[in-house]
Design brief:
- By secondary structure, this protein is of the alpha/beta class.
- Helix content is 40%, strand content 14%.
- It is built from 19 helices and 15 strands.
- Strands 6-3-7-8-10-9 form a six-stranded parallel sheet. Strands 11-13-12-14-15 form a five-stranded mixed sheet.
- Helix 5 packs across helix 6 and helix 13 packs across helix 14.
- The longest helix is centred in the first third of the chain and has 31 residues.
- The protein starts with a helix and ends with a helix.
Length: 468
């Protein structure tokens, strides 16, 4: 019995949500049909909720009303139950009445379809620009990634947090991708993904249904589920934001998006490491990014500077076969100004690239991602044989050709060290030594936490010096 495990009043809950609610006997098929018809006819703008009270396994007296009816335990009694209600003893029986009903469905639906096509054709002729935009959205057609990258201005040389870079980039994304919308789990002010002049979605207050900014409340799991629903509907590209450490609340919905290849979905996850600082270890993710990287078909981008952030966003809206997680910093990061912006963007689209080429014979490769790339560049500055590889997206890198990967990480160079402010195991695929954070952090200013736990150029240099 549901009452055994559920004490809440379901009807009151959905009434409180603002649904129009109905409660009926789910075994009375005439009432079921009448109620569905009434709900469809009710044009009051409310979603509809019909609670059908039923008894599991009804008609199989041996298991009726018990969990045994839910699985194989009820199978031996199916034949007896069918006989009791006058059904023939055949595996798959479809009554003539059912067949007659469905014989008319195709004809009825064909007329509805033809009428709709005529209505749409007239609207399209009167509104060609809007029709083109709608059809592009339904077809998931965006401008090519190369054109989009070229259409976004260079970001500048000043140090800034990648969440701030992301705020700038999302304005361009919203301009270049008209069907792009974004929302937050009550953290717009921190995650910085608000679309300026996009309006707020909803009813009441300053909201309208034309708004591009969604307010999910503190509901990460619901946010992920809603994003998936938007993607399945098939018009909009949608992103949702929260602090990275809270992403585990929505992990099941991310898994579904990845399994279903919902490329219209992306996640903006900020405050990406122990650099969060004073909020302490509860808010300092150390295992979270590696935990996302193990989800098949999810691209996880952790950009190192503003130009990498541009490319990460562009990839998220031009990818065609799965969702993308954008991992952004709270703290300011240096820009790799020694390398042209266009090259950083192009390299980021490939997931990994040479961020600093060796000036002598190559004898060391330093692999880094996100906020640790700046430390890698500093540590390599006095090492002529050192190459720095920025790897913002392992998944995109792994999709590159063998020739490209060999050009970035030549197999002949086995002296490699990786650095990331996260747990270390996965990086041993690429490096013989890893500098990471295999523990929880602590509460202190972010720069102090980073330094104390080894996320600095000085410590990286010491670790390199210790290698054979």
């Amino acid at each position: 019995m549901a009452e055994y495990t559920q004490s809440e009043d379901i009807m009151k809950r959905y009434d409180a949500y603002g649904f129009e609610t109905y409660e009926i006997d789910g075994h009375d098929l005439a009432v079921v049909e009448e109620t569905i018809a009434a709900a469809k006819a009710s044009d009051n703008g409310k979603p509809k909720f019909i609670k059908c009270n039923t008894i599991i396994g009804k008609g199989m007296e041996e298991t009726e009303g018990t969990n045994a009816a839910h699985g194989e335990a009820g199978v031996p009694y199916v034949g007896k139950a069918k006989a009791a209600i006058g059904l023939p003893d055949s595996g798959w029986y479809v009554s003539e009445g059912t067949r007659d009903f469905f014989n008319t469905v195709q004809e009825k639906n064909g007329k509805i379809y033809d009428d709709w096509q005529a209505t749409y054709a007239a609207w399209k002729e009167a509104n060609p620009d809007m029709a083109s935009e709608l059809e592009d959205a339904i077809a998931d057609k965006t401008m090519p990634a190369e054109d989009m990258l070229a259409a976004i201005p260079e970001m500048g040389d000043e140090a800034e947090a990648t969440r701030v870079s992301g705020f700038k980039v999302i304005q361009d994304i919203a301009r270049l991708v008209p069907n792009y919308i974004s929302g937050s789990a009550d953290l717009h002010g921190s995650t910085r993904n608000y679309i300026n002049d996009g309006g707020n979605f909803g009813a009441g207050f300053d909201k309208s249904y034309a708004g591009k900014n969604l307010y999910f409340g503190i509901r990460e799991h619901a946010m992920g589920a809603i994003l998936n629903g938007i993607a399945y509907h098939g018009i909009f590209k949608a992103s949702g934001s929260t602090f990275l450490v809270f992403v585990d609340y929505m992990r099941p919905t991310i898994r579904v998006a990845s399994l279903a290849e919902l490329n219209r979905v992306s996640y903006i996850l900020t405050h990406d490491s122990i650099g969060v600082g004073e909020d302490g270890p509860t808010h300092q993710p150390v295992e979270t990014v590696p935990g996302l990287r193990v989800i098949p078909n999810l691209d996880v981008y952790r950009p190192a500077d503003a130009e990498e952030t541009v490319a990460a966003y562009v990839s998220s809206v031009t990818r065609t076969d799965g969702p993308t997680a954008l991992i952004l910093s709270r703290q300011n990061l240096n820009q790799n100004t020694a390398m042209p912006a266009a090259e950083r963007r192009a390299g980021t689209m490939k997931g990994g690239y040479i961020a600093k080429k060796e000036t002598g014979d190559l004898d060391l490769i330093i692999i880094a991602t996100g906020s640790e790339v700046q430390h890698a560049l500093e540590a390599a500055a006095e090492l002529p044989g050192a190459r720095v590889v920025s790897m913002p997206c392992v998944e995109a890198y792994e999709r590159q050709s063998d020739d490209y990967k060999e050009s970035v990480l030549p197999s002949s160079v086995t002296k490699r060290i990786a650095i990331e402010a996260a747990v270390t195991p996965a990086w041993y695929k690429y490096a013989s030594k890893v500098v990471g954070v295999d523990r929880f952090g602590f509460s202190a200013p972010g720069d102090i936490v980073m330094k104390e736990l080894g996320m600095s150029a000085e410590n990286l240099s010491a670790e390199i010096a210790s290698m054979n």
